[in-house]
Write a structure and sequence with these properties.
By secondary structure, the protein is α/β, with parallel strands linked by helices. It has 13 helices and 12 strands.
């Protein structure tokens, strides 16, 4: 118990039961008994649930509606439990003057870096083909590729890109990056990056690299940053990794390039439309490794995000400015 803190009313907008665990348990544990905690019930009227709430926590930033904001006169913080907020009506919350925060990328960076590393290894060792050969007793094939000496291009050099750079270093890969902000020489050396270019350098770097991994937020500027023209710049032996947002890539053009042999493979955790259609022919390709948007779904991410949210709620309870505001 933290007696110096004001007791707040916290409302959690959660995914359906089969998706909310362990996020719900970790959040409850991080909050402890300091604040009053309730789950939003989508089948009940909004006004009684939101009228006296101090903090709303939206799992994934996908449940909030304008109607909720309209009936939340006491709210002091609208907290997104997640990194992305492209589906959140941020402009409306700005108009309502409701502070909005997220749990930024550093809390899920390790998980995303591990997933991207997994995709690279599976594609390099031609995982799908090995499983077919194993079932059909065709041993000693296929011939995989080593990562040592291969060139990796990180488009975006935030927390998850750095996590991947740290993981590929022991494999002897050469790492290049593209980043809008200025990256210091010390930061570049720390993560073993040979060159950090600007967005204008993407076209020059794409044809030179064996693996391309995306680490960007989705917005109007980054949507289809890998469009048909840029996908055509990749070597036919190159592989694309996307654990960020599906709409960063023109998925129709990606599929065409994979089918026609103009791209060696893709490791995808995110898709232009989610949930993705399970009958999508993309998932039947032997050179595609795919997962259902779970790159950030780990025990560590859940704990770290919960601790971040709890700390922000405590700040509000002390009358302090919440961290990681995006409004």
């Amino acid at each position: 118990m933290k007696p110096s803190l004001k007791r707040l009313q916290v409302l959690f907008l959660a995914h359906p039961p089969h998706l909310r665990e362990p996020w719900l348990n970790d959040l409850r544990q991080a909050l402890g008994s300091q604040h009053d905690f309730a789950l939003w019930d989508e089948h009940q009227p909004l006004t009684p649930q939101f009228a006296k709430v101090d903090v709303v926590v939206d799992q994934g930033g996908v449940h909030s509606t304008r109607a909720m904001a309209d009936v939340s006169p006491a709210v002091k913080l609208w907290q997104i439990l997640g990194t992305g907020f492209e589906k959140f009506d941020l402009e409306y919350w700005r108009q309502k003057k409701i502070p909005v925060a997220n749990t930024p990328g550093q809390f899920s960076a390790d998980a995303l870096g591990e997933c991207a590393m997994m995709f690279m290894l599976m594609l390099a060792r031609r995982w799908h083909e090995t499983q077919v050969n194993l079932r059909e007793s065709r041993f000693y094939a296929p011939l995989g590729r080593e990562l040592a000496g291969a060139r990796l291009l990180l488009i975006g050099f935030g927390a998850s890109a750095k996590a991947l750079a740290a993981r590929v270093r022991p494999f002897g890969m050469r790492v290049f990056a593209v980043e809008v902000r200025e990256v210091s020489e010390a930061e570049r050396r720390e993560f073993g990056v040979e060159v950090v270019g600007k967005p204008a350098d993407i076209d020059r770097l794409l044809p030179e690299c064996d693996y391309v991994s995306l680490h960007l937020h989705l917005n109007d500027e980054t949507r289809h940053i890998l469009d048909a023209r840029r996908l055509a710049l990749l070597k036919p032996t190159a592989c694309l990794i996307n654990v960020a947002r599906g709409a960063l890539v023109d998925q129709v053009s990606l599929y065409r390039n994979l089918v026609e042999g103009r791209l060696a493979g893709a490791g995808l955790d995110v898709f232009e439309s989610e949930p993705a259609d399970p009958t999508d022919p993309l998932f039947k390709l032997p050179n595609v490794v795919a997962t259902p948007h779970v790159s950030g779904s780990t025990d560590g991410t859940s704990r770290r995000r919960a601790q971040c949210v709890a700390a922000n709620i405590d700040r509000v309870a002390q009358g302090l400015e919440p961290l990681y505001r995006i409004d």
